[in-house]
Write a structure and sequence with these properties.
467 residues; alpha+beta; Beta-Lactamase; 4 domains; five-stranded antiparallel β-sheet; 25% strand; elongated
Length: 467
């Protein structure tokens, strides 16, 4: 008898050790949830000492909106031992919230419950993040929606109540080919993952595209019980691709048009030029007639140059090159140093990959404009052009500043229009900046803008760089 008693004490002691060393909080509570016993793990979970816990009811720590559900679980557990789990939000002694997964088990004496509490705060937090930011849905094996994330609702514009129990056809766009869905179902019903791009429609009839991955869910016997779908909104990326395609198509059309015009104009212009030269030789004595022929020849040359300028707008014959920007600028300003002073502010390490010939053409055009403005405004002293380059993450800003007297405000809004010029007619046809803007945007993938004050003009060019 004494031996059996010692064994029982030893067993209880070992059982107590096991319970106290558990990572989960374990307690014994009555029907009102008053603690009768707590293990050592429950104290750090709730932040109260064991003595403090034994003087309280567990429901005292449960937030109001969860209390009724928890007490109902106790009542249900007396009749149905399958209803055992609930997630509740509690408040610790330090006032911090904590999510607990609580499992209730009615003891054999039918008077008390064993309570097991596991801290799932991080899991709940992660789930909330996934719910808010990951576009996902769950369906049963027939394709009817059983669960959607808040991010899914935000994207589609539907409330959860409008989606649950319905198939994904509620957002399916009518243009989606039936072959795509056949392939999808054939794949996932075989237990394989399926990925693809699907066109959908929101509640407000806006179109959106998703890159979707569908994964079958299985029970422990390997049977498919439903499907999980993860989606990424790729609408913006596809719109950008469409814009690029449209721009390329536009450029191709322009290219073909310019080639046609160039071909049709070349021969007549050559004929006019040759005839004008012959006539000028035959009527050298008639000064008026000779002057008229010179004007004809000059205009033919201008028309020919205009064709070449437009061809340069749409055709780049050179290959892209890796360019050390400071070295290039120093080379470009050499021919102009005898006319005006230059100041360069550029890091030696700035490197870009670009069409060097195009960039040179644009730079020369802008610098020539500045020098011609200095001459028109009769600026003699302190003539200066500052070339400044600033690195901004994955692009550079190139500033060309002059002190040539500025540009009239009413001219600034028209500065990039074709055939607009602030120069006298004989000095320009107004295509330089128009072509510069277009080649920068079309070929260099950058941008250009011009600002002006009473004395200065600043041209800003933005270009991508090599990281």
């Amino acid at each position: 008898m004494g031996s059996d008693l010692e064994k029982l004490k030893s067993t209880n002691h070992e059982l107590k050790e096991i319970i106290n060393n558990s990572w989960d909080g374990i307690g014994i509570i009555d029907f009102k949830s008053k603690f009768l016993y707590v293990n050592d793990a429950l104290s750090p979970i709730l932040g109260y000492s064991n003595i403090e816990l034994l003087s309280r009811n567990f429901v005292d720590f449960v937030n109001y909106e969860y209390k009724i559900s928890f007490l109902q679980l106790l009542r249900d557990n007396m009749r149905n031992s399958y209803d055992t789990d609930i997630n509740v939000l509690c408040t610790r002694k330090d006032k911090k919230p904590i999510y607990l997964k609580v499992t209730i088990s009615l003891m054999l004496n039918k008077k008390f419950f064993v309570l097991n509490a596991k801290d799932i705060t991080k899991q709940i937090s992660d789930d909330q993040i996934l719910n808010n930011y990951v576009i996902s849905s769950h369906t049963d094996k027939y394709g009817f929606i059983t669960k959607v994330s808040d991010a899914f609702c935000k994207l589609t514009g539907y409330a959860k109540s409008e989606l649950l129990g319905r198939s994904h056809a509620v957002i399916q766009h009518e243009d989606t080919p039936s072959e795509l869905f056949k392939d999808m179902w054939d794949t996932i019903l075989k237990g394989k993952d399926w990925t693809g791009k699907i066109k959908n429609v929101k509640k407000n009839n806006d179109i959106f595209w998703v890159d979707i991955k569908i994964k079958p869910m299985n029970n422990k016997y390997g049977d498919i019980t439903g499907f999980t779908a993860l989606m990424f909104d790729i609408t913006h990326e596809l719109e950008l691709d469409e814009k690029v395609i449209a721009q390329d198509n536009k450029l191709n059309i322009m290219s073909e048009t310019i080639k046609t015009i160039s071909h049709e104009w070349r021969q007549p212009l050559n004929t006019i030029s040759i005839l004008a030269q012959k006539l000028s030789l035959e009527v050298e004595e008639n000064e008026t007639f000779t002057d008229a022929l010179k004007i004809i020849t000059e205009n033919v040359r201008n028309l020919s140059n205009t064709i070449e300028e437009f061809k340069s707008l749409i055709e780049v014959e050179a290959q892209k090159e890796v360019v050390e920007l400071k070295k290039l600028i120093e080379t470009l300003i050499k021919p102009y140093k005898r006319i005006t002073e230059f100041e360069i502010e550029c890091d030696n390490k700035i490197i870009i990959e670009t069409y060097e010939s195009v960039l040179v053409s644009v730079f020369n055009n802008i610098v020539k404009n500045s020098i011609e403005a200095m001459q028109r405004n009769m600026i003699v002293d302190n003539k200066k052009i500052i070339v400044q380059v600033k690195r901004k993450k994955d692009f550079i800003e190139l500033f060309i500043k002059d002190n040539a007297g500025g540009i009239e405000p009413e001219h600034l809004t028209k500065i990039f229009e074709p055939y607009f010029s602030t120069k006298q007619e004989k000095h320009g046809v107004g295509l330089g900046l128009y072509i510069a803007k277009n080649v920068i945007e079309l070929h260099l993938k950058g941008s250009i803008s011009i600002t002006s004050s009473a004395n200065a003009t600043i041209t800003k060019i933005t270009l991508p760089v090599i990281n």
